[in-house]
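User: quick one, sequence for these tokens?
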């Protein structure tokens, strides 16, 4: 499982997630202040974060999860 977004030029291999608890994955990323869009990659499929309440449309006609840092 990986995460790709505006913070890593949408390259999910730069941000792998590690299983922290049974079925829960996470990573610690140092992000600059601002708005960041992202998606998870699960079994090769891009997916929005189901726990994120803020989603934004993208140029592909789908949605990205969006978070504010700082």
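Assistant:
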């Amino acid at each position: 499982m990986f995460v790709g977004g505006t913070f890593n030029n949408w390259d999910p291999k730069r941000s792998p997630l590690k299983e922290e608890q049974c079925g829960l994955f996470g990573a610690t990323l140092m992000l600059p202040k601002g708005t960041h869009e992202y998606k998870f990659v699960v079994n090769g499929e891009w997916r929005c974060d189901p726990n994120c309440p803020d989603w934004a449309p993208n140029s592909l006609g789908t949605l990205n999860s969006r978070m504010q840092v700082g």
